[in-house]
């Protein structure tokens, strides 16, 4: 479960032009954006520019891929497909066009947007800095616009933009430049779906920026406030994308082949933030080389839950084994004046269920 703290990340750009750019450390598929750069030396354009001229940005991109991967594993920890980074499996998942493919693409694009934006705010990149909205004319129009759009913005009293806001547009753009650039000229259905889901991921960050304010004035009287824009935390981004995954729409190419529509006339067209896919998922019950399914044998399940993490669904009806494990925990803790807590060690028995 733990990712290694090395600059190691899943390869998401591996579909076509750069399929050769993933390798393994242990059993993980890893991607170093630097390696993608090597593979794409012949390419021109924005990707090549980042590769040649922006090594610090590349490092942030790698961090972003890792942020996305961790969140993916958290969101899917109790499901049949658990966002595994086992190479042979992930490779197959990414070469297809299922909901799972869509989620991995979206969360990665979101992670890159997030990490690059954070780096700007922290002052770690020379190319960008905090968002500063201080010009006066701009300020007034922004206040009215934001006051309508954003309930957090104070509507009464004096306030102004200031502080150090998250410059999400920069992160958004760099995520696009790096992840989408190699695909921009193609219009097969998989590419269209991929670009759509990448953007849906980025929008899950950008559309949910919130406003934070700080009071100034005599002893916190809040006569003047400074406000700035801040990204949602990444768990929220993950939760939103997981919802989009659950409601993802299946699409088919239009006749001209330049866009897609939902399959079936009654389903409303997907909005920019919805995830889409063009291939049905396997059930992930049994190992299958072709689909990248690892199967669920040996996975832990919850015997009393009726949900996806419950033994019935997770084990696909095959049944499960129960084992009692002893665990040491802190118990009978006492607070001692002042200020220490002392505990005894107790052994508790837990039953662990694993799928057959
Ligand atoms: C995901 O599931 C596979 C088997 O299906 C298991 O080997 C692996 O440990 C799981 N990974 C995580 C991160 O839980
Ligand atoms: C198992 O599922 C039940 C019912 O959903 C829940 O109350 C319980 O906390 C779960 N147990 C674990 C260990 O997650």
Structural key phrases:
356 residues, alpha+beta, Endo-n-acetylneuraminidase fold, 2 domains, three-stranded mixed beta sheet, globular, disordered N terminus, binds 2-acetamido-2-deoxy-beta-D-glucopyranose
How would you characterize the overall build of this protein?
- By secondary structure, the protein is an alpha+beta fold.
- It folds into two domains: 4-127 and 165-204 and 233-295, no CATH class; 304-356, Endo-n-acetylneuraminidase fold.
- It is 37% helix and 21% strand.
- The protein is built from ten helices and 13 strands.
- The protein has helices at residues 33-39, 46-53, 55-75, 87-95, 99-122, 136-149, 168-179, 189-206, 234-246, 311-314, and strands spanning 23-25, 28-30, 158-161, 210-216, 224-230, 249-253, 260-262, 276-277, 287-288, 293-294, 300-301, 320-336, 340-355.
- Strands 3-5-4 form a three-stranded mixed β-sheet, with no helix packed on it. Strands 7-6-8 form a three-stranded mixed β-sheet.
- α5 packs across α7 (168-179), α7 packs antiparallel against α8 (189-206) and α8 (189-206) packs across α9.
- The longest helix is centred in the first third of the chain and has 24 residues, at 99-122.
- The radius of gyration is 24 Å and the shape is globular.
- Mean pLDDT is 83; it is low at 1-30 and 134-148.
- The protein binds 2-acetamido-2-deoxy-beta-D-glucopyranose (2 copies).
- Residues 1, 73, 77, 82, 84, 294-296, 299 line the site of one 2-acetamido-2-deoxy-beta-D-glucopyranose (NAG).
Concise structural overview:
By secondary structure, this protein is of the alpha+beta class. Helix content is 37%, strand content 21%. Bound molecules: 2-acetamido-2-deoxy-beta-D-glucopyranose (2 copies).
């Amino acid at each position: 479960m733990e990712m290694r703290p090395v600059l190691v990340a899943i390869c998401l750009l591996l579909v076509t032009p750069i399929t050769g750019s993933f390798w393994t450390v242990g059993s993980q598929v890893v991607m170093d954006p630097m390696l993608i750069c090597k593979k794409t030396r012949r390419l021109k354009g924005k990707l090549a520019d980042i590769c040649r001229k922006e090594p610090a940005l590349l490092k942030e991109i790698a961090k972003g891929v890792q942020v996305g991967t961790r969140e993916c594993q958290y969101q899917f920890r109790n499901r049949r497909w658990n966002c595994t980074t086992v190479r042979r499996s992930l490779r197959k998942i990414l070469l297809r066009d299922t909901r799972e493919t869509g989620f991995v693409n979206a969360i990665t694009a979101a992670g890159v947007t997030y990490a690059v934006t954070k780096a700007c705010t922290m002052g770690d990149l020379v190319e960008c800095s905090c968002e500063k909205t201080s010009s006066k004319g701009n300020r007034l129009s922004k206040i009215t616009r934001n006051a309508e759009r954003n309930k957090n913005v104070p509507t009464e009293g004096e306030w102004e933009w200031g502080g150090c806001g998250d410059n999400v547009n920069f992160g958004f753009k760099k995520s696009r430049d790096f992840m989408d650039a190699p695909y921009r000229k193609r219009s097969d259905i998989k590419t269209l779906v991929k670009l759509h889901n990448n953007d849906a991921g980025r929008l899950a960050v950008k559309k949910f920026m919130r406003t934070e304010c700080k009071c100034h004035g005599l002893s916190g009287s809040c006569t003047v406030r400074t406000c700035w824009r801040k990204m949602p935390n990444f768990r929220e981004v993950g939760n939103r994308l997981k919802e989009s995954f659950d409601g993802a729409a299946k699409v088919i190419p239009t006749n001209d082949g330049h866009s897609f529509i939902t399959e079936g006339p009654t389903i409303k067209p997907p909005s920019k933030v919805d995830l889409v896919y063009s291939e049905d998922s396997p059930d992930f019950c049994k190992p299958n080389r072709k689909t990248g399914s690892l199967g669920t044998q040996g996975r832990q399940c919850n015997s009393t839950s009726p949900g996806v993490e419950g033994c019935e669904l997770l084990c696909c009806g095959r049944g499960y084994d129960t084992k009692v494990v002893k665990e040491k925990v802190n118990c009978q803790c006492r607070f001692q004046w002042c200020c220490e807590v002392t505990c005894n060690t107790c052994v508790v028995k837990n039953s662990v269920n694993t799928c057959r």
